[in-house]
Design goal:
- With about 450 residues, the chain is α/β, with parallel strands linked by helices.
- The chain contains 14 helices and 15 strands.
- α12 packs parallel to α14 and α13 crosses α14.
- The longest helix is centred in the last third of the chain and has 20 residues.
- The protein has two domains: about 140 residues, Aspartate Aminotransferase, domain 1 (Alpha-Beta Complex), CATH 3.90.1150; about 270 residues, Aspartate Aminotransferase, domain 2.
- The strands form three sheets. The protein has a seven-stranded mixed β-sheet, sandwiched between helices. The protein has a four-stranded mixed β-sheet with strand order 1-2-3-13. Strands 11-12-15-14 form a four-stranded antiparallel β-sheet, with helices on one face.
- Bound molecules: pyridoxal-5'-phosphate.
- The site of pyridoxal-5'-phosphate (PLP) has 14 residues, from α5.
- GO terms for molecular function: transaminase activity.
- InterPro entries: Aminotrans_3, Aminotrans_3_PPA_site, PyrdxlP-dep_Trfase, PyrdxlP-dep_Trfase_major, PyrdxlP-dep_Trfase_small.
- Belongs to the class-III pyridoxal-phosphate-dependent aminotransferase family.
- Keywords: Aminotransferase, Pyridoxal phosphate, Transferase.
């Protein structure tokens, strides 16, 4: 593989740098559902980039919008000034959100969305005069990015242990019950686990809990659809105890679950909903936090004279004009081509492929799926639970298919436009590589 640019200076994120630099995987092009590597091989992108690019890569609509925007307004200070596309995109996003979520605060990533939503929740309660409401409840196996707030509420131990704790948090149990293995779609058992919130209320007092943050469907821990009734129960308990409910929809937002949002797919509306990734189809970094009118209006009504800030928060690149142009074009494609509906239609086919081809394979201890998201869990190789997924993903890369390996799982996230032969190639290659690894 061609690496005459030098490998040592770039400290790669979430990558085994030492292994990578011995055996680099360099991607040089992308089109539709395919990547090209630096040897000129076509590689099937089985993960929509990084859950980002459901519309397929190099969509001409987005390319055109981005090029035009760079030439017209390449930057606009987002503090104290605005540009038309920021308002257009916020209006568009609000129109696609569940009823009641009407106000869009722009960020540049999922991690920034997580920390923004936590700050928004705390500030809301401060403005309401409930100054003790500062604690957050996350969930085991939850992933909310890598900034300090997100790490604190997150529940994947490997992401936490070197960094210490900075927030008062606690964590609900995860919902991967042994009786739910090999569930198709939402597992039947587990709604009772939401009830644990009552224990935290008893332990800490509802007057100290600002918000619960969960992914409606866990993604990074390896596709954990919510058990039937779980999110509804969580919503009821949050209402009962006046605790805000935040959905981190960085993966589920904009189509992945066969509906516009996870909230729509699972029929539960949060107070705050975080998005990123699919918002611009991954083309330009962008995220957003969408708040209820109650939250937004509380800031607007209690901030003092109107020349003062209502929320002392924001990023230099919030609502970047080029990201806004990409977002507007990407959401138009998503809506015009009815891609969430396509995902809903094709999801049963993907589900059948996953369960029929993978359930009986060596090392596979679980298969899970929802919409266009699927994962398997693999038995540990001796005392090395992370090794086999890595080896399997490398074997698949050799065969020209990219999947994500994370923890003891392999994760697949087909593009919303992926056709059946490509879905078959994705799952078929995984199946073959499992046999070969045995
Ligand atoms: C649910 C969730 N929240 C937050 C993030 C962090 O997003 P980013 O990597 O854009 O900061 C991710 C990324 O995978 C995610 O899946």
């Amino acid at each position: 593989m061609k690496t005459d640019f030098g490998l040592s200076a770039y400290w790669m994120p979430y990558t085994g740098n030492r292994q990578f630099k011995q055996d680099p995987r360099i991607i040089t092009g992308a089109d539709g559902v395919w990547f090209t590597d630096s040897d000129g091989r076509k590689v099937l992108d089985g993960h929509s980039g990084l859950w980002t690019s459901g519309l397929g890569h190099a969509r001409p609509e987005i390319t055109k919008a981005v090029s035009e925007q760079v030439a017209t307004l390449d930057f606009c200070p987002p503090f104290q000034f605005g540009h038309p596309k920021a308002f257009e995109l916020a209006t568009k996003i609000a129109s696609l959100m569940p009823e009641g979520l009407n106000h869009v605060f722009f960020t540049n990533s999922g991690s920034e969305s997580a920390d923004t939503s936590l700050k928004m929740a705390r500030a809301y309660w401060q403005l309401k005069g409930e100054t003790k409401k500062t604690r957050f409840i996350g969930r085991q196996k939850g992933y909310h990015g890598v900034n300090f707030g997100g790490v604190a509420v997150g529940g994947i131990p490997a992401n936490k242990h070197l960094f210490g704790e900075v927030l008062e948090t606690d964590h609900l149990s995860h919902t991967m019950l042994p009786e739910n293995v090999f569930s198709r779609g939402m597992p039947e058992t587990g709604a009772h686990l939401a009830q644990e919130l009552e224990r935290f209320v008893e332990l800490y007092g509802a007057e100290t809990i600002a918000a619960v943050i969960v992914e409606p469907m866990g993604g990074s821990a390896g596709v954990l659809p919510p058990p039937t009734g779980y999110l509804k129960r969580l919503r009821e308990l949050c209402d009962k105890h006046r605790i805000l409910l935040i959905f981190d929809e960085v993966i589920t937002g904009f189509g992945r679950c066969g509906a516009m949002t996870g909230s729509d797919a699972f029929g539960v509306v949060p107070d705050i909903l975080n998005v990123a990734k699919q918002l611009t189809n991954g083309v330009i970094p962008m995220g957003a936090v969408i708040a209820s009118s109650e939250i937004h209006n509380t800031f607007m009504e209690t901030a003092g004279p109107d020349y003062l800030l209502e929320f002392a928060h924001g990023y230099t690149y919030s609502a970047h004009p080029v990201a806004c142009a990409a977002g507007l074009a990407a959401l138009d494609v998503l809506v015009d081509e009815q891609l969430p509906q396509r995902v809903a239609q094709e999801a049963p086919y993907f589900e059948d492929l996953l369960h029929e081809q993978l359930s009986e394979k060596p090392f596979v201890t679980d298969v899970r799926n929802y919409g266009f998201a699927g994962a398997i869990t693999l038995e540990a190789a001796g005392d090395e639970p992370l090794k086999r997924p890595f080896e399997l993903a490398m074997a698949m890369w050799e065969q020209g298919v990219l999947v994500r390996y994370g923890g003891d799982t392999i994760q697949m996230a087909p593009h919303f436009v992926m056709q059946r032969p490509e879905l078959e190639r994705l799952v078929g290659t995984l199946s073959d590589c499992l046999d070969r690894l045995a």
